Every structure is written in C-alpha cells, then in structure tokens.
Fold each of these.
Amino acid sequence: MSASYPGAVNEDTRTQPTSPEDPVSTEDEAVIALAHSLLDAARTGDAAALLSLVDQGAPVDLRDGAGNSPLMLAAYHGHAELVRELAARGADVDLVNDRGQSPLAGVAFKGFTDVAEVLLEAGADPALGTPSALDTAVYFERAEMVALIEARRA
C-alpha cells in the first residue's frame, strides 16, 4: 500500500527550523518540545507519558502541523488502549486532520480492526472525512472492517 494514498496520515510532526528573522523564545521552545513529546508519545503508544501530560492539563486535542491529534496518531499506529484512554479523557474521535481524514479512516487504511472497534464504541462517525472510513475500507478490500462499520450503521 502506498503512503501517498489519501488515507495515509502525514507522519511529519516536526516543525521546520526557524530563520534568524523568526526568533523563538526559550519559553516557546519549551512549549514546542512539550508538544513534540506529546505527539511522539501518541505515535509510539507511550500511554504513561501521554496520559500523564493530558492529566496535567495538556490539550487532549493538540494538533501537529498537519492537523493530526494525539488520538489520530495513536489510532493510526494501532494503539487501541491508548485511543480508548484518550477518548475517555475527552479527545474528539471525529477530529479530522488538515487533509480531511478522520481517525477511523486512518484506521481503515491501516486495517486495525481493534482500534476501529474502540473508535466506533466511542461514537466515531464512519461517514466522516474524505475519503470516509467506509470508502477507505472498501477501496482496500478490508472485508472485516467493512463488516464492522456496516454492523454499527445498522
């Protein structure tokens, strides 16, 4: 499967280096580093680090430069229990990224039915996004994912 498919999540959450004309304060650098650690923890499934930051007040729906939230990154990388915990802490299960992709569509692209079940239980909309989760599952011939989505829609 090609990562250029519209269902692929952009994995580059690193900010571009600043120019000398665009100074960044030490406080800004600390905030940026904290955001990167939060997003990296979501991607790697480091629930202890990520949930601790969220529980201390970090925004659960923080977004990277491509509009991906921690829940999107955790879902896309197959971390079902982390997705469950983020949703329980108020993460928006339908927050689309800048390309119009929903977490459920990303999961359909990757084929993680366990994560899809968590998202659907949390109320994710399978018709949301471009392409939708259902369209993505059909396109990639993920019969189990299609059946799961269809069962929730019935």
Note: The chain has one domain: 26-153.
Amino acid sequence: MAGEIYDNQGRGDAAWSWPPIHPEGRKFGLIAVAVSLFFLSPWIDIEIIGWPLLLLSLGVFAFFRDPERVVPQAENAIVAPADGLVSLITEVEPPEEMVADDGSGNPGLSPGPVTRISIFMSVFDVHINRAPVAGTIRRLVYIPGKFMNADLDKASEENERQHILIERGDGVAIAFTQIAGLVARRIVPFVKPGDTVAKGQRVGLIRFGSRVDVYLPAGTDPKVLIGQSVIAGETVLAELGTQGLIEGISQ
C-alpha cells in the first residue's frame, strides 16, 4: 500500500526498539546488577554505592548492545568494521604478520605502502566488529602488548591487538586490526581461520573502548574523512580500485 513504512525486514511499520544485548555482555550486566542489588538490600543498605552501581549496570548493557545493520551490497564496497570516529588516515607499511609467510600456503598482503584508516571507538560506541568485505578468513593473529590510549598512532604497533585477513572470492585480500585501548582489556574473536564470512557479518568485539585499523589495497583511496563518524557494516570506507581523494567541509 502506497505510503506505508517498512523496517529492513519488511515487518510493517518501522518503530524504535532497544537493540538486543550480545550474549558476550549479558553476564557482565547481570553481575553488575547483582552487586548493586546486594548493596541496596535491607541487610546492607549502602545506597551511596548501590544506586551508582545500578546505573553502571545499565551502562554495561548499553555497551554490549548489538543493533541490526543494513549492509551495502555493492560488490566493490569496503564497509566500516567498527562504529566510531575516523581518527587517522595515513600511508603505512602493512603489519608484518599480514605480509610474512605464515606457513599456511595462503598468501598475505603485498609489501609496500598502503592506506590505513583508523577508527576510534569510545565507550559509548557499539563495540561489535564486522567484516569489511565478504570472503574467507585466511589469518587471525593475536599479539599481546600494552594498553596505551588507542587514539595514539603508535598504538597500532605497541598495544595488544589482533590482525584479521579476509580473502575475497577474486583473490583480493583485506586486512584489519582490532586494537585494545586504555580501558579495553580483552579482544574477543567470533571467527577462526578457514571461516567464510559475509560482508557486515559480526566477527568479534573489543571490551570497553578501543580502535580498529583497516588496510586498503593498493589503488584504492578512502571515501571518508578524518573526524567523520562511521557505522559498522553500513558506512562505505572505500571502493576497490577507486582512486581520487575526496574533500569535505565540516558542518
């Protein structure tokens, strides 16, 4: 019927609803609620601690929210793997772990400078990370490290991090890195080498503030700007093989 509004699953009138909480976060939220209720109980009754903890438990649930996303299906689109702010766009050498022969027989990235887009996630952003392209997980490399501010450039080389390499069906490889931050203390993968993923599929999360770096293939320029907010699984960071830097004005 003309004029009707449908949600992205065709279920009738669109309406706001609280996004579901990812199972990984439910236990933390329930623990926070239990502790707050303990301090608010009649036999303890320490409200000065209980009420702030109860508010904190709501924040924990909000941190692990997992909203649905509408993923662009253009074949050459590379979508953002994380919600957050584009904090850096720079030319760098790809991570050594994504270039060197890992003995699996699967090729890594080619050596030579590539464009890296860094997305900083504050504690207020959704922290579920998604695949920037469809393909097969060829490498998943965890590296222990420091927990300095993830907004710093050197965090890419010194912080705890996890590299993920996805090979598309046409052989093009896209790498991105989950980086723990000042507060983040755990990188949780949902995939393993050999898994096939769809574009925008959930591949992991980083607990409590962090950053994700995306390494664009040679000959591909970004379609986002520093300071731009992006949405995981929805915002197009770049289109494979498309060059020509964009310009914008903050408004």
Note: The chain has two domains: 1-68, 77-239.
